[in-house]
Write a structure and sequence with these properties.
40 helices, globular
Length: 895
């Protein structure tokens, strides 16, 4: 008889009554869960309540199965059966939409009846809509599988009897402890740590990702589970929640872990409840709502969501730090006899010793002399040694003794400065100092940005993690490790004289974020104060403060302004004033951007920074943008003449007469030659349009040049065609020749910010450009295809559109900056609005920061002048803001 047939042996009425009763019980449990979450009850209570409710459901199903659905005709030992809860359900921490993991434990050679009971129970639970993970095994099978599979062994470790033959369940527990656990602690530890490494590699090697995984991330619930498993494995009589076997202190450490578990369980319950499914990624879309439900409110300096996420990151930091220290201590304990302490050569009297290959100190030495804590990390970095896990925990406990006297200690400050500016790289040391709380105590301003996030998709890490990564990047540049992608930064580093000020500025550049004020200005003052405290002289301190105050100036100018505009360079040079500061600011900018988000940096951004650097250096070194302009134009023409040796003098003279002087200073000779041949091709083409593209691997962009008759709205049409092809515009330069021919050049990338280089897509791009300009292709319809539902369904972050109009940034053009939420076809819509204002776009700078787009246009009116009339400016603002009316994410503003 099949399992389905077995269910028909029960009276239909009783079976229907059972299903009705169970559905009512589950509905009640879910309603109680929802109400508890609405009241923001702690997650341990919610999950424990759900687990108890599920226990009742399982018991009810099993009672019905054994008494009525598949009744026993006579007692048989082979009918023995027990149900054990596994996983989160076994721990009594069942989240709202988690799987219900069950082990049906049978007697050896289980009877047909026992298997029919299991089949009935599973179908009954499935019919309730539950996701049931299950296995049916006898004790011997359980032990054999657990011996070969560490995941199964872990599941059995915390199995909890829910129903059935208690003796069967006790027998499994006894044999499991005796035959599998005893003497295998080292094997289990090694396997669990290997699993953790694989998990970290999969879910992110830092706990400070701004969309973390609540279950699997570093310091998240799985790390807490790991501690629980290790503690259970090391106890002869296991007791859940007791971490004493791991050496955890029964007081402060245990309380910290308990608080973290309750908080993380609460977050996970809200996450499941809001998603309506088993969802463990804490995405941007749900962070604000969970923050609201957990009682976080906006404050003047921080939004509620940022305060909530800071609490999240602090919780995972505490867990991750303790897990690292505890597991390191356990690893050492399994290595055999403890090594004997060895004095450190040349360091008598420091209280530091070598234990094997690790640096160690007695707890008393760190407690009695807090400066020794700083010396510990300095020595470890200088010698390339790991710090003994017990000593790290002692350092964490001694951190609270770091006070104003220690912060004023000249020796301690000199040691820290050595750590920070080490050519070997300070990343590992700074992270260890942060994880023990020492860094936050020694530099209290750093403590304020620990776990500080920014609610956007541009910044991938919290401020403290970003800062440490920026220091690591700076040291890597100094060591020459990024010469291929950062040639200029690598070349400049040996030339700077203020490297200590630079390292300090990188450390402090975001130190004032989250304080409700200009973080650059306040950060500059804090940097100067810390510089003097650390022993830098007045000049170095002033330099560090200046770098922090202006750490965004290089990128803002390079990415948002036309560096071929004389006033752009003159204004930037007026700020930097010296070659030294120019070099320092470039290096800080590179380290900052490279540490912001792995997807942010690309070759094109590097080229924009290099372009600004070379133009600024020319002026700072004694030249002037406006000087020698005629000579530079003549030189550019001479170089092009050599490149076009196959052209006649008459043809070359006619060609050069078509260009105005600014064109010659905006491109190099190779580009001039490509344009000349493109325009010649266009002149011969019956349709009067020519398109060419070139892939630039170093800059990671594709250059697209279009030569065609100029007309109103040409830029918008070209931008639309490029968007319809699936490309993004990184930069654009627009020139109109003396004979009315437009030469428009675009630098485009794919949506991953790499060169748009697939041949099929490039062919489609050419087809779209030519078709749109000829009127053969309906651009609106092509763009509609790109505005796909998947983009519309993407969670919208609150980004308020802004329009900034500046008539002082350029001597000849009005500069318009448009900020707002990105979407396919946005640039087309913006430039179409400009065209309808009868404005000509001369240059465009297109930048994307996560979901935010920042488009900057240099424009002139139809008379070739700036837009200055108040009514025209007001109408321009309104038209540009109207572009965002259909885009989610905020209320439009103008400035």
């Amino acid at each position: 008889m099949t399992a389905r047939a077995a269910t028909r042996t029960a009276p239909a009425g009783r079976q229907t009554a059972l299903a009705r009763r169970l559905k009512q019980a589950l509905a009640k449990a879910r309603a109680e869960t929802a109400a508890a979450l609405d009241r923001n009850e702690p997650g341990d209570r919610v999950t424990a309540g759900l687990s108890r409710a599920m226990d009742r459901v399982v018991r009810d199903v099993m009672d019905h199965a054994t008494a009525e659905a598949v009744p026993a005709r006579a007692h048989a030992a082979r009918d023995a059966l027990a149900v054990l809860a596994l996983g989160g359900y076994g721990r009594g921490q069942l989240a709202p939409h988690s799987d219900v993991d069950l082990l049906f434990l049978t007697a050896p050679r289980a009877s047909v009846r026992a298997r029919r009971v299991v089949a009935f129970a599973l179908h009954a639970l499935w019919d309730l809509g539950l996701k049931v993970g299950h296995a049916t095994r006898d004790v011997d099978d359980c032990l054999a599988r657990a011996r070969a599979n560490m995941t199964i062994r872990t599941a059995l470790l915390e199995a909890r009897a829910v129903w059935g033959d208690a003796e069967l369940a006790r027998g499994l527990r006894a044999r499991f402890q005796r035959e599998l656990v005893a003497g295998t602690e080292a094997e289990f530890l090694a396997a669990k740590l290997a699993e953790r490494e694989a998990r970290i590699a999969r879910f992110g090697a830092t706990r400070f990702l701004v969309e973390p995984n609540v279950k699997e991330g570093i310091g998240a619930l799985r790390d807490l589970d790991l501690l629980g498993w290790l503690a259970l494995y090391r106890r002869r009589r296991p007791k859940r929640g007791d971490l004493g076997p791991l050496g955890a202190k029964p007081g402060r450490e245990a309380r910290r872990l308990l608080r973290a578990r309750v908080f993380l369980l609460t977050v996970r319950c809200h996450l499941h409840h809001l998603a309506g499914r088993a969802e463990d990624r804490l995405g941007f879309d749900v962070q604000p709502e969970i923050a609201r439900r957990m009682g976080y409110r906006d404050r003047r300096s921080n939004r509620a969501v940022e305060r909530f996420m800071k609490r999240y990151f602090l919780a995972t930091k505490e867990v991750g730090d303790l897990v690292g220290q505890i597991t390191a201590a356990l690893e050492e304990a399994t290595e055999g006899d403890a090594p004997r302490p060895q004095p450190i050569a040349g360091r008598d009297g420091t209280g530091l010793v070598l234990l094997g290959r690790r640096l160690a100190a007695s707890p008393g030495a760190l407690r009695d002399d807090p400066v020794a804590v700083i010396r510990l990390f300095h020595e470890a970095q200088a010698r390339g040694l790991a710090i003994h896990p017990a000593t790290l925990r002692s350092a964490a406990q001694a951190a609270s003794r770091i006070d104003d006297a220690v912060r004023a200690d000249a020796a301690a400050n000199a040691l820290f400065l050595d750590v920070l500016a080490s050519r070997a790289g300070a990343e590992a040391t700074l992270r260890a100092m942060s994880e023990t709380g020492v860094l936050a105590r020694f530099v209290p301003d750093f403590g304020r940005v620990v776990a500080q996030m920014q609610y956007d998709r541009y910044h991938a890490y919290t401020v403290d993690e970003h800062t440490i990564r920026a220091i690591a990047m700076l040291a890597a540049v100094e060591r020459g490790e990024h010469i291929a992608e950062l040639p200029l930064a690598t070349e400049l580093f040996p030339k700077i004289r203020s490297r200590r000020a630079l390292y300090l500025a990188v450390f402090m550049h975001d130190i004032a974020k989250g304080r409700g004020t200009d973080h650059s200005e306040l950060g500059g003052a804090l940097a100067e104060a810390l510089a003097r405290r650390l022993g830098l002289d007045d000049e170095e301190a002033e330099t560090a403060g200046w770098l922090v105050r202006h750490h965004l100036a290089f990128s803002r100018t390079a990415f948002k302004r036309d560096v071929n505009d004389a006033k752009t360079v003159e204004d930037f040079v007026a700020l930097v004033q010296s070659v030294e500061r120019l070099r320092l600011l470039l290096l800080l900018t590179v380290a900052d951007i490279r540490a912001t988000n792995p997807a942010v940096w690309n070759g094109w951004k590097g080229q924009l920074l290099r372009d600004l650097y070379w133009r600024a250096e020319e002026v700072v070194s004694g030249g002037h943008v406006a000087e020698h302009k005629r000579a530079r134009v003549e030189d550019a023409r001479d170089r092009l003449r050599s490149a076009l040796a196959d052209w006649s003098d008459a043809d070359f003279a006619a060609y050069t007469a078509r260009h105005f002087p600014p064109y010659w200073l905006s491109f190099d000779t190779d580009a001039h030659a490509r344009h000349a041949r493109l325009l010649a091709l266009r002149d011969r083409d019956a349709a009067g349009t020519a398109v060419a593209h070139r892939i630039d691997r170093f800059r990671d962009v594709t250059e697209v040049s279009v030569a065609t008759a100029d007309r109103q709205g040409l830029f918008a049409s070209l931008a639309g065609a490029i968007a319809a092809a699936g490309a993004s515009i990184a930069d654009a330069k627009i020139y109109t020749l003396a004979d009315g021919v437009a030469l428009d050049t675009f630098w485009i990338q794919d949506h991953a910010r790499h060169a748009f280089d697939e041949p099929r897509r490039l062919a489609r791009l050419d087809e779209l450009i030519l078709g749109v300009l000829a009127g053969r292709i309906d651009l609106a319809r092509e763009l509609a295809k790109r505005r796909r539902p998947s983009w519309a369904a993407r969670p919208a972050l609150p980004i308020a559109p802004r329009v900034l109009i500046d008539n002082d940034a350029s001597t000849k053009h009005t500069v318009i900056e448009v900020n707002g939420r990105d979407r396919p076809g946005l640039l087309h819509d913006v430039t179409l609005a400009l065209a309808r204002q009868r404005l000509s776009i001369v240059t465009a700078r297109i930048s994307t920061y996560g979901d935010r787009v920042v488009d900057v246009f240099y424009v002139r009116d139809r008379f070739g002048l700036k837009v200055t009339h108040p009514a025209s400016l007001a109408q321009l603002r309104q038209r540009l803001l109207a572009v965002f009316d259909d885009a989610p994410g905020g209320t439009a503003t103008a400035a």
